Amino acid sequence: MSREKFIDPKVLATIKDLPLLAKTVVEGFLSGQNQSLRRGAGLEFSQYRSYQPGDDLRQLDWKMFARSDRYYIREAEVDTNITVRFILDGSASMGHVDENGLSKMDYARFLVASLAYLATTQGDAVGLYVLHEKQLINLTPRSDNMHLQRFWHQLSEIKPSGRFPDPETVASFFSDRRQKELTVFLTDLYEQAHEIKDLLYKLGAQRHELLLFHLMSRNELDFTFDGTLTFEDLETGQTLQVGTAEQRKAYLVRLQEWLQQTEKDMRNRQIAYDLFATDEPLDKALRSFLKNRLVYG
Q: N or C: which terminal CB in the chain sees fewer CB atoms within 10 Å?
């Protein structure tokens, strides 16, 4: 099976065991990135060698990735462990399903599982926070195996519902911040009154590395709907009848304006922003995570 098929979300949906899925994604991604070996600046082959499937991922060297765009195994241990917090929007809009049968929550689950597996193999502590108005899941960062099993369980049990909570309600979750910390926030940015952006800005002001993974389905991005349809807001229940042919052009123009302004707003606040369609392979997200992880060595 090719690297692309390993990482394609539709194929991953057939893997029901979340830890197996995560391992499949990460090892497929890393082996695919290291098809050829080339020398990086200052590379000492007595200290490093190219990653091979089955290698201990705890020996993966982040700095060598930054310098050579290849994955290398280091022979000596270097203490570069950090805390990685995953904040997941659990509101009802994340249950929206794309043409491939996957919801935004499914895609987010695949991403978080894979990134958490990659982080824990490096010895990083991982935490999980799932936010919606009916329930707040708070799994404080740790790095032991028992914690990881709880992480998998909580992640697999998430069911999108309700609205996103008020930022003041959840701000206390993130007051105990570590010195070396990376936060990954996954959301579709569907909000009623700027509640998601307000929380993002509060987190960004704490001067830790913050990644925003903005998730949208392909049918939202391309408006691949036909005929006269009634759309229902998954969070408010409001409905709207739309002639898709008449509204498609105006919708796409306004969508692009909103996406461009959103990215500009985030980057102005030093928040790393990436947009993901839920039919895209996961390697883009893994690469973005790795490059931001490199801040800590």
A: N
Distance CA 91, CA 135 (A): 10
pLDDT higher than threshold 90 for residue 158: yes
Residue 173: Cβ within 10 Å count: 17
Q: How far apart are CA 252 and CA 250, in angstroms?
A: 6
pLDDT at 282 over 70: yes
- Tell me the whole-structure pTM to 2 decimals: 0.81
The dihedral sign for the CA sequence 88, 90, 94, 95: positive
H helices of 122-216, in order, are 145-157, 167-170, 195-204
Name, in order, each residue with C-beta under 8 angstroms of 19's C-beta and a sequence gap of 6 or more.
113, 117, 152
The per-residue pLDDT for range 40-69, each reduced to its tens digit, is 333 333 355 566 676 666 666 666 666 666
Enumerate residues 6+ apart whose C-beta is below 8 A from 268: none
For residue 124, which phi and psi values (nearest 5 degrees)?
Answer: -75, 150
